[in-house]
Amino acid sequence: MERRNLLKLPLAAAALTLAGGVALAQEAEKKVIGVSIPSATHGFMGGLNWHAQDTIARLGKVYPNIEFVLSTAGDAAKQVSDIEDMLATRNIDGLVVLPFESEPLTDPVKQVKAAGKFVTVVDRGLSEEGIEDLYVAGDNTAFGRVAGEYFRDNLPAGAKIVVLRGIPTTLDNERVEAFQAALQGSDKEILDMQHGNWNRDDAFKVMQDYLAKYPEIDAVWAADDDMAVGVLEAIAQAGREDQMVVVGGAGMKDIVKRIMDKDPQLPVNVTYPPALISSAIEMTALRFMSNAPMAGRYIIGSQLITPENAEQFYYPDSPF
Amino acid sequence: MKRIDLHLLGPLVALVGLFILGALLNPAFLAPANLSNVLARSAFIGLIAVGMTFVITQGGLDLSVGSMAAFLAGITIMAMNALAPFTGENWGTILIGMGVAMAGGVLAGFVNGALITRARIEAFIVTLGTMGIFRSLVTWLADGGTLSLDSGLRTLYRPVYFSGIGWITWPIIVFAIVAILGEWTMRHTRFGRHVEAIGSNDRVARYSAVDVERVRLMTYVLLGALVGLATILYVPRLGSASGSTGVLWELEAIAAVIIGGTALKGGRGRVWGTVVGVLILSLIDNILNLADLVSPYLNGAIQGVIIVLAVVLQREKRSAE
Hints:
The complex is a heterodimer. By secondary structure, chain A is an alpha/beta fold. Chain A is 47% helix and 18% strand.
């Protein structure tokens, strides 16, 4: 009970300030935006966490009237509790959520919407359509297709490709299906597809086994730069660096740097920017701070990073 | 006597069976390069599992080892990166890094052991707690990303994982030495006998003037030191550590110990069995990757079936004794 009262103190102070500046009341009204994302369990999510914190710090200065509440969750159940807490105790006006899993988060986010709040869903869609006001996501189909098309157009005829898949999820399926579709009917062959779980160590093991199993491999689709790091190490161990190219994904800074430096082993990369959380937070903030319409679906395309354009995808300060 | 022999040989028979299966499915399986890969990969879990054998045999448990390895890898990398400008990119710096890993491991094991034996908190609870603490610490140190070793040091350090005597690389050699020393310690030293005595009945052990708490504490310190040693071999492989390093290593190590014939309730430890258990787990993984037997979605299920089966077979034989 005591805590409740304490929480009310700043609100009371804010109310007094509001009463003071009557003319500015509309602008000075404090808005609270909740941001709920999965915790930094792997490289990509680490980058996403960094961009979220970075954006919140920056926007906090630009819009003093917006207060951000950031929470990170290690599993879906914790994320549901976080969102319930935001609604019950922090009185949020808007919610930016990257669902840990679609199914379990659908109902809690629906409750937020039902309470009349503005909802932005990031990257992983909810399992029911029409709940969110704004949907911001990367393009998983394009992510797979761009890599597939690169292989189709640039590898020699009869080239043999091995694939490392991520954690078994719909997202991974979309990417892989698009990749296969892009290679459909071409003269390139996919030898094998195993799960490296977006993890360096797992990818290292899977690639070691590929190298033991197949005497001829011309290209590796590592589908993620964390996996690409493990793959490169396994290839170096086998001394087969000059036999195959590796295409990762998501644009990790070390990999982008090597593409900039024209490393023959890493010709290209495909973007799936962790900074998409920044787009989502910025647009949600704009919803409250401007008249610009912010609704609908905003899909960030997956682009091919080549040595020519790599510089614009290089963020040396990001941890990813 | 004959029955006991059969019972002892159970895991070994399974290992030989897997070898034959692997060789039949893909000739590349028996290539030295592949066997070297599998053995070297087994070394991390193997070293940890040898330590875990002592902890489980005295009736304890340690869930924190995977997170501990990630944390130790993190501080080792940070220490070497921080020192490199002063001490230079040489073996001295790497030796200091190795020292950090070992000292950190011993200290972490001591903290676990002290909380369990001095503060008398359940081992499961203590190590569940430290598991979360180590995991969070490494994520925090890495700022949610990945800690990477400076490339100069990495080039120098890399051979510790990848080279050795011919295709018998250093991790394999270290694993073999630790396994032999572990087996010898369990069988032929007072410490080993005390560990087994405490695990089968700690009261009787206490009445027999065994310093129960001290021996228990020592098993956790030993395990911590072996996690440190595993870290020393792990860091040169990819030169990085992150929040996803060493995930579920604790359960793999525990599974290997149990497959090897050590009783989960304590009292009977078998280090060589643990080694066999570790190799079985690594071989399953390797064979599934080499053979396309089932959908990769089912790899975990196959491992699960084999773990349960291995333990079930031992149970039946034990009741027959």
